Amino acid sequence: MIRYIFSIAFALLTANSFAQNQVVLNADQGKEIINKNIYGHFAEHLGNCIYNGFYVGDTNKIIPNTNGVRNDIIDALKKLKVPNLRWPGGCFADTYHWKDGVGPKDKRPAIVNRWWGGVTEDNSFGTHDFLNMCELLGAQPYLAGNVGSGTVQELTDWTQYVNGKPNTSPMSTWRVQNGRKEPWNVSIWGVGNEAWGCGGNMKPEYYANVFRQYATYMTDWSNSDKLFRVASGANVDDYNWTEVLMRDIPHNMMEGVALHHYANVKWSEKGSATDYTEQQYFATMKSALRMEELVTRHSTIMDKYDPKKKIALVVDEWGGWYEVEKGTNPGFLYQQNTMRDAMIAGVTLNVFHNHCDRVRMANLAQTVNVLQAVILTSKEKMIITPTYHVLEMYNVHQDATMIPVKLITNEYVFGTEKLPAVSVSASKDKEGVTHISLVNIDASKAQDITVNVNGGKYTVVSGRILSSKKLQDFNSFNDPGKIQPAEFKDAKLSGNSLQVKLPPFSVVVLTLK
Ligand code: AHR
């Protein structure tokens, strides 16, 4: 008999789920808004992101398009509610001379895209194409200016070209001649990209001075309060970079400081995007979860110089980075997207939500056919990835009030290493509806979670889940609907307590009313 009880106890302990995950949610204590710009995207002249991705050419009769931009991509991104789109790079931005990309297309000069595959860039997709595309998407443009190989005059001219009232300056007159009367009123501007690397290999003190100079001339003085200028930020944990920028750049000249961090197994052995081991998965999750530490530490430095949090931390490049798909150009960074990427998206967005007082903008790298893409194309075909689905499920949090959460989680153990298995964030939208996003990154164990909801009364819970049979599953051109959200039925509400069971490697968004 004793043996029987023991074996039941043992069986319970080793069963596929444990009960000690606890979430406490203080629904009446939300103060900060989750800025929708955290859901920003990134489109670089890199591989098949712009050409053969977004843009198929305005004379294309095979793929339905609007002024050369694929209609299926426009529709998919509108559903995603993309709030802003960063362009033209990345590293490419610091080699890009915007004047090459305006005016009659047959007169535009061709250049070599020396960062990405050494291919010819014919400049057929330029400023008008991008800004008009943003209007179609309903997304705010985020223009990254060329500081590495450009000039102050060039960036000044660009701001006047896109923002100047019609015919009030040589630049705005040129814009009108090129077919666009009204200004686009672009607010978000990057002053260079990765200035510590491909943007000029600068030291932070030098870049801070360069930033001051560029930022001075980016305005015609009538619109300085309307510009959101983002300083090229730190590489991962280069805390000194943030410290110097916050110390040396006057705070009335800079509205955001950037940060770049990619999740990977190891830079020297990035591994396949689809054919990976649990060890590689665990390493990727560890790298992705590092975003919590990075955001916390960079924010602490910013708090020292800017306690009122006027300046935003802008994570304008994040996502998973693996080896390119076999047989593709290594300079094109084309990779498939599996449930591992869904996990990266879920946990990273939860980090951003929970730090929304400082993280007010972010850009997933990159939208189409590059790195952790939400869309993949192949000639006339287009598919959406597991990452797309997470962003779509999560977009209920855009501009909602963040609800502070407390979490006690089981560990996801692999060998001698451990990670928190569960990640969570919550918000209340303008209609008073509460949404809770939960992720279980454990590759094999389900998680039972008790969620105590304080400060609110709810009678109904519903939910959506993204999961799949295998961690390595992905949507392909032959099976585009393999992974898609489904109704989630494993949440039971009783009073102010919720019992939830999350399958292994799954993302769930709950709606409480
Ligand atoms: O997103 C790909 C590249 O990664 C970007 O061009 C660059 O900024 C970063 O190093």
Q: Enumerate the spans where pLDDT stays under 50 for 5 or more consecutive residues.
A: 1-18
Q: How many runs of DSSP E, i.e. beta strands? A: 27
**What hetero molecules are bound to the protein chains?**
alpha-L-arabinofuranose
User: Helical residue percent?
Assistant: 25-40%
Average pLDDT level: 94
Residue share in β-strands: 25-35%
Shape: globular
Rounded to the nearest angstrom, the radius of gyration is 23 Å
Task: Walk me through the structure.
The protein has 513 residues and is α/β, with parallel strands linked by helices. Helix content is 26%, strand content 26%. It is built from 10 helices and 27 strands. The protein has helices at residues 2-14, 71-80, 127-137, 152-163, 170-177, 204-217, 239-248, 278-305, 339-354, 386-394, and strands at residues 21-26, 40-42, 65-66, 69-70, 84-87, 111-113, 119-121, 140-145, 188-191, 228-235, 256-263, 312-320, 359-365, 375-378, 381-384, 401-403, 405-408, 411-414, 417-420, 422-428, 434-440, 447-454, 461-466, 486-487, 491-494, 497-502, 506-512. The strands form 7 sheets. The protein has an 8-stranded parallel barrel, surrounded by 5 helices. A 6-stranded antiparallel sheet has the order 16-20-21-27-23-24, with helices on one face. Helix 6 (204-217) packs across helix 7 (239-248), helix 7 runs parallel beside helix 8 and helix 9 (339-354) runs parallel beside helix 10 (386-394). It starts with a helix and ends with a strand. Mean pLDDT is 94; it is low at 1-18. Bound molecules: alpha-L-arabinofuranose. Alpha-L-arabinofuranose binds next to loops.
